[in-house]
C-alpha cells in the first residue's frame, strides 16, 4: 500500500537547509496497522505529509497505492483518508453537515453522501448528536467526528496524526475500539503517536524515528524483546542517592538506568532482582516490578532528553 526507498525531505528555514527525513525505507502492507513513533522533530509529520501527497518528495522514491504522488496526487488523495492532529471541523455546521459537505468535495452524490454520513455517525456513536453544533461536543466526540469525516470517501488507507492527543482515558479507549474495527474491515491504517501504550495496543508493526532516520522497526513485541528485558524493577531512594546506589547494583541487572527520581533495573526477574538489592543492605523508599513496555524501548533508542 505504501512503499518508500531512500525517502528524503528537506526544506529551507531561517536561511539554512533542514533535512527532516534523511533517507528512510518503509513498506506498509494491505490491512496492516502501521505506526511511526519518535520524539518531536524526528521527521514523522514530514513523512506523513509526503505519504498524504501534499508535500513533495525531496529525494528517493515513494509509491502510494502503486501511484507516484508527484504525478498522481489527486488520485491518491481521492483514495486515502487523513485525520489531522488538530480538529479542523466547521463550527458553523452541525455534526451531520460536517460529513455531508466534506463528502461532496469527493464528488459523492447527495443521496450517497447522506447515506454514508448516517452510516458513519452510527459507526462513531454520534447518531444522537447529528443535529448538534460542533462547539457543543466534547473533545472525544470531536475526535470521533474528525475520524468519521476522514472515512467519508471509503479510503483504502487512513492516515492518523496523533489520533487521541488530549483525550481522557475513557475517550481514548472508545477511539481505539473504532480504529480496531476499521482494521477488521480491511482498512490499512498508518498512525503517528506519542502514546506508547497506544502503539503497543494497536500497531501490527511500527518504526521508531529519530533525527530523520529509522532507528528500529518491528512489531511491538519483537522490539521489546530485542531492546529491553522481560521485566523492570523500579527503585526509589532518597533525594540525590540514586546515582550513588547505581554502581552498587549494576551487576544485578542487564542494564541499570539512573533517573532523577528512581533507578530502573532491567532483568528477566524483577522480584529476584529486588530481593538481591535488599540482601546487600540497600533499602529503597519504594520498589515495584513491571513488565517492559514499548516506552522503555522508545526511551532507550531516542534518549530521555526533552526535545523542543
UniProtKB/TrEMBL annotation:
Membrane topology of this protein: Peripheral membrane protein
A molecular function (GO) term: ATP hydrolysis activity
Highest taxon in the source lineage: Bacteria
GO biological process, one term: response to antibiotic
Key word Metal-binding present: no
GO CC list: plasma membrane
Transport recorded as keyword: yes
Domain ABC transporter: 2-236
Location relative to the cell: Cell membrane
Keywords noted in UniProt: Antibiotic resistance, ATP-binding, Cell membrane, Membrane, Nucleotide-binding, Translocase, Transport
InterPro entries in the record: AAA+_ATPase, ABC_transporter-like_ATP-bd, ABC_transporter-like_CS, ABC_transporter_ATP-binding, P-loop_NTPase
Annotated PANTHER family: ABC TRANSPORTER ATP-BINDING PROTEIN, ABC TRANSPORTER ATP-BINDING PROTEIN NATA
Family to which the UniProt record says this protein belongs: Belongs to the ABC transporter superfamily.
Protein name: ABC transporter ATP-binding protein
Organism of provenance: Nocardioides marmorisolisilvae
Amino acid at each position: 500500500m505504501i512503499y518508500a526507498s531512500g525517502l528524503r525531505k528537506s526544506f529551507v528555514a531561517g536561511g539554512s537547509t533542514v533535512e527532516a527525513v534523511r533517507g528512510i525505507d518503509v513498506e506498509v502492507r494491505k490491512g496492516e496497522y502501521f505506526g511511526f513513533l519518535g520524539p518531536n522533530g524526528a521527521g514523522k509529520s514530514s513523512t506523513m505529509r509526503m505519504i498524504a501527497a501534499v508535500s513533495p518528495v525531496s529525494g528517493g522514491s515513494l509509491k502510494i497505492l502503486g501511484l507516484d504522488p508527484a504525478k498522481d496526487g489527486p488520485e491518491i488523495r481521492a483514495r486515502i483518508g487523513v485525520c489531522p492532529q488538530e480538529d479542523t471541523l466547521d463550527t458553523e455546521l452541525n455534526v451531520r453537515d460536517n460529513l455531508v459537505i466534506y463528502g461532496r468535495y469527493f464528488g459523492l452524490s447527495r443521496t450517497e453522501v447522506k447515506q454514508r454520513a448516517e452510516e458513519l455517525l452510527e459507526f462513531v456513536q454520534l447518531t444522537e448528536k447529528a443535529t448538534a453544533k460542533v462547539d457543543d461536543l466534547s473533545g472525544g466526540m470531536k475526535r470521533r467526528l474528525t475520524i468519521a469525516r476522514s472515512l467519508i470517501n471509503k479510503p483504502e488507507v487512513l492516515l492518523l496524526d496523533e489520533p487521541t492527543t488530549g483525550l481522557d482515558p475513557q475517550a481514548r479507549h472508545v477511539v481505539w475500539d473504532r480504529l480496531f474495527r476499521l482494521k477488521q474491515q480491511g482498512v490499512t491504517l498508518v498512525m503517528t503517536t506519542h502514546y506508547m501504550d497506544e502503539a503497543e495496543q494497536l500497531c501490527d508493526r511500527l518504526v521508531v524515528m529519530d533525527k530523520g532516520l529509522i532507528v528500529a522497526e518491528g512489531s511491538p513485541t519483537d522490539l521489546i524483546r530485542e531492546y529491553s528485558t522481560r521485566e523492570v524493577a523500579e527503585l526509589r531512594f532518597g533525594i540525590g542517592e540514586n546515582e550513588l546506589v547505581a554502581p552498587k547494583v549494576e551487576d544485578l541487572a542487564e542494564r541499570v538506568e539512573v533517573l532523577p527520581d528512581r533507578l530502573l533495573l532491567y532483568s528477566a526477574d524483577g522480584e529476584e532482582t529486588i530481593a538481591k538489592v535488599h540482601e546487600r543492605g540497600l533499602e529503597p523508599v519504594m520498589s515495584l516490578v513491571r513488565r517492559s513496555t514499548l516506552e522503555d524501548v522508545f526511551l532507550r533508542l531516542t534518549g530521555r532528553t526533552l526535545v523542543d
